[in-house]
Amino acid sequence: MPKSQRAKELAAKQKAAARAEKLRKKNSDDPSDWGRLRQMTHVFKLTAKEDKAFVPLALAGFLVPIVVGVILLAVLGDWSWLLIGLASGFLLFMLVFTWRARRANFRRYSGQPGASELAFRELPKKGWNVSLAITGNRYQDMLHRVIGPPGIVLVGEGQAGRVREMLESEAKKHQSIRQGLTVTTVVVGDAANQVPVAKLARYLKKLPKTLQAAELTEVKSRVQALDAARPRIPIPRGPMPSMKGARAAMRGR
């Protein structure tokens, strides 16, 4: 077969594969396959359904600066005020969108097993390492481990009494891997001495720094032995995959 013919067939196959992939993404229910605009639209609808004040606040944030810009244009005759109003309106709309979408997402998943994953996604990727569901029980109580500048933080989800027992046991195991290692325990929840899931990332980032960047690698390597000695438990996901579009919206992108 001539090279030109093979090249044409290869190009045709590539075009057919590209069309098939485009069609698959178009009909997909997985937000990771969607474009940015579709993700944003999906998050907008979810937020509006969850938060009745969202749409009025978003519209107000968008329209008020524009109205002010129009008034200043009429009074001063300077078109730049209208442009400033449009830019400010879009910026305020995105700020309201980010704020209310984040609030609605945490409220939607609060109390569900694995909800802390939402908070962990707000931690910086550099210098932080998260291990989900390092241990758990049949009641779906579970512990997550965060390794970062504060040392090791064990985060528990579930019934407070059972979770605290699990945290005490795991804290002793983790403290034994390195002398002087700081191990902090946290119970996620809305009761006293608990941290709400929506405030968890902020709480973790405000903990005193006890590890230098060079020490993080050493600590991560030492905890691998603990993980190897026990089976992993499945992580309840529920509707979590739809959060990719929400994360994009919350970043304002």
Write the layout of secondary structure elements.
Blueprint: H1 3-27, H2 36-50, H3 54-76, H4 80-109, H5 116-120, E1 129-136, E2 142-148, E3 151-157, H6 160-175, E4 183-187, H7 200-206, H8 213-228, H9 243-250
Parallel strand pairs: 3-4
Antiparallel strand pairs: 1-2, 2-3
Helix pairs in contact: 2-4, 2-9, 3-4, 4-9
A few lines on this structure:
The chain is of the alpha+beta class and 253 residues long.
Give the key terms.
four-stranded mixed sheet; 4 strands; 253 residues; disordered C terminus; alpha+beta
N-to-C SSE string, H for helix and E for strand: HHHHHEEEHEHHH
Domain tally:
3
If helices are DSSP runs of H or I spanning 4 or more residues, what is the number of helices?
9
Give the low-confidence spans.
235-253
Q: Mind summarizing the main beta sheet?
A: 4 strands, mixed
Termini gap: 49 Å
The portion of residues forming beta strands comes to 5-15%
**What gross morphology would you assign?**
extended
Structural class determined from secondary elements: alpha+beta
Q: How are the strands of the biggest sheet laid out side by side?
A: 1-2-3-4
Rg calculated over all Cα atoms? 24 Å
The tally of beta strands, per DSSP, is: 4
Average pLDDT for all residues: 82
Name the helicity range.
55-70%
